[in-house]
Amino acid sequence: MAARGSCPGCGSAALVEDAHYAQQQLVCAACGCVLAEGLLTTTYTEEEHLREVAYSQSTGQKEQLSRCLQRGIRRVQDLCKVLQLPMVFEETAVSYFQRALQHPCFHLVSLEKKELLGGCCVFVTCRQHNWPLTMGTICSLLYAKQELFASVYLSLQKELGLSVPALSLGDLVKTHLNSFRLFQHTADVPATFVEDKEKMVARTMQIVELASETWLVTGRHPVPIVTAAAFLSWQSLQPAARLTCTFARFCKLAGVDLPPPAHLRLKELLEILLRMASQLAWLRVFNMDKKTVVKHIGDLLQHRIFLLKNAFCLEDGEEQRATAPGEGSASSPPAAGGAAQEEGCPSEGKRQREDGRRPLLPPCLINPRKRLRTAALSASDSAITGDEPISDSEIEQYLRGPEEIRAFRKAKAWS
Q: Strands (DSSP E) along 1-151, which ranges?
């Protein structure tokens, strides 16, 4: 056992006092063992007084921020390598992360949120460069909850004043379907359920475009719509073997979550398809239902423009002049967003009596929900006047042409 006044590790008596980060320590000069530590002080005005201070004001906090920054940068770089992003993406994401850690808003957040901050910087960078990456992909790599990730992402976007463009539906379809496990035969996926990836992506894109033209996308979360469209496209490519497969089983085989609103989006899509099927002459002899209409999705999508105009009360626009089913194509979108124009649509009562057609309206106008009692506004909400500036990434959502304005007025009058 070492004698008093000697190092307990090596027995040396060469003990010295060393001020390490303004913290007095008794150190063995021979082996470096720390025998005792003194009071924690700052290195600024209170160093000479040996006054105890809070950890957030000490030099230890400065060192901790430095280590946190280094770990965060490495995490951002590793994430970029896993996603195989270009070097310019990595540099931009690292710069955003450095700016975020220097912002006072992120100094006192939890460690879990700081770890997600690097993923948010990568996500923002990909969106700004139009790189198809979903929040779900980032969350799966970071083992994070999407709700927590979304809160950190919104805080980062607000505090740093970042302009982030929205991901297009086409990019989202491709990215979302990349995670499906239905494109190669495995022990969990029967051979009849395996589908060609390019065929499924192409048909899903067409169904999502149809949903967009019939107001099913506006104001909705896109993932449930894409999931429902993928299910319909997958069934329609081999209906004989797949019509008995349920939506829940399809998502389980594909290895994706089933969002709660997806069943509603599937029901709305099937209703649109049934209305379109009623306008095809060779399908009127059949008793179409939500099961059998899936077999004819290919024909319905091929003549989409003609069928939408005949199934709903649409104006004969310059881009919608179709006289036969064969003239419609999936690449020429109809002016469904400007549906139910004032001049081309007779009164609703007369139209319902003649052929049952109605204007093409958003579901919220067809089946309006009961208006809930509004709560009292908070101080921050009451300060909003409506004159706040709109960011460049949101300005396109507020621009309307003359046709959209007329359609919106017509929809309000019809409701």
A: 15-20, 23-28, 34-37
